[in-house]
Amino acid sequence: MEERRPGLDPAVAEVRLAVRRALTGLEPGATVLVALSGGADSLSLAAATAFEAPKLGLRAAAATVDHGLQDGSTDAAAAAAARAQALGLDARVVRVEVAGAGGPEAAAREARYAALLDAARVAGAAAILLGHTLDDQAETVLLGLARGAGATSLQGMAAASDLDGVRLLRPLLDVRRTTTRAACAAEGLDPWDDPQNADPRFARVRVRETVLPVLEAELGPGIAEALARTAAQLREDAEAFDEMIDETIEDIVEHAEAGISVSVAALAANPAALRNRIIRHVVASEFHQSLTRTQTIEVARLVTDWSGQGPIDLPGCRARRVGGRIEFTAR
């Protein structure tokens, strides 16, 4: 357990330690960009980054994305940038147009990440720091479970990943939302409460305000932590599967005319979990499309339950059995 200086608030110490661990390993002299909404999570993250980054030889900046989806968003974004500047961070506001398929939440998320990536490139940042907490992770897992989206969705958010060559870091995935609020209070920071975070029209808000409290009341405390542990365990399993696929795929895949083919015997020799992942991996890597479980199982039946069935139409491609191979060709 790290020793804390006398008088240092425990919540502030916890957030700073999480940030320090996430930043350790970045090259001295690198720039990190905090995605700052102005809420308690990102504001406590910005404060901790402003404190920890210089100690590690890093430069720190902040970017606030104004989605323009509600009255007062411009003022809220400007206030967030001003708070970042008061903390000693270079700060800028990026305004975006939110449009696209998938609903307002998905469109806003896509626009936000694109804007943050552009801001990181302008700043020459090696990493973008995101303020997702353990509570956000628990909500993500529950939403994935409700959608029946499979193990990939239940892995939740990664603590570290890459987006077009820029590192995405989520230092606070083991930190509770109550801790970030306590850290802001201890440092005299006034976070902004986004009205959309209390709007029950959004599924995530209903999970946060209704579903998780009911689970805690009926099943006992610790539900959020248990969901976050589940995500971490599934991510470890997925990484192991990915390594197995990387080791296996070169031996069983061949290029075919307008596509790619996979050995039936090799697929049949693998357990169903690995076989299905190989099928999804082939389609994703070759045709940049994602298969549903139903589509994956239909392709797998060409291996395990072959009775002369014809080609299967899939997103972006078609699968068929030709002798001892499964061919995937562009449609």
UniProtKB/TrEMBL annotation:
Name by which UniProt lists this protein: tRNA(Ile)-lysidine synthase
Presence of keyword Acyltransferase: no
Domain comment as written in the entry: The N-terminal region contains the highly conserved SGGXDS motif, predicted to be a P-loop motif involved in ATP binding.
Gene3D superfamilies: 1.20.59.20, HUPs
The EC number(s) this enzyme carries: 6.3.4.19
Molecular function (Gene Ontology), one example: tRNA(Ile)-lysidine synthase activity
Residue ranges occupied by any tRNA(Ile)-lysidine synthase substrate-binding domain in the UniProt entry: 263-326
Organism: Microbacterium psychrotolerans
HAMAP family: tRNA_Ile_lys_synt
Keywords: ATP-binding, Coiled coil, Cytoplasm, Ligase, Nucleotide-binding, tRNA processing
Coiled-coil ranges per UniProt: 224-251
Reactions catalysed, as given in the entry: cytidine(34) in tRNA(Ile2) + L-lysine + ATP = lysidine(34) in tRNA(Ile2) + AMP + diphosphate + H(+)
Family to which this protein belongs: Belongs to the tRNA(Ile)-lysidine synthase family.
Signal peptide residues on this chain, from the entry's feature table: none
Functional note: Ligates lysine onto the cytidine present at position 34 of the AUA codon-specific tRNA(Ile) that contains the anticodon CAU, in an ATP-dependent manner. Cytidine is converted to lysidine, thus changing the amino acid specificity of the tRNA from methionine to isoleucine.
Main subcellular location: cytoplasm
Organism classification: Bacteria, Bacillati, Actinomycetota, Actinomycetes, Micrococcales
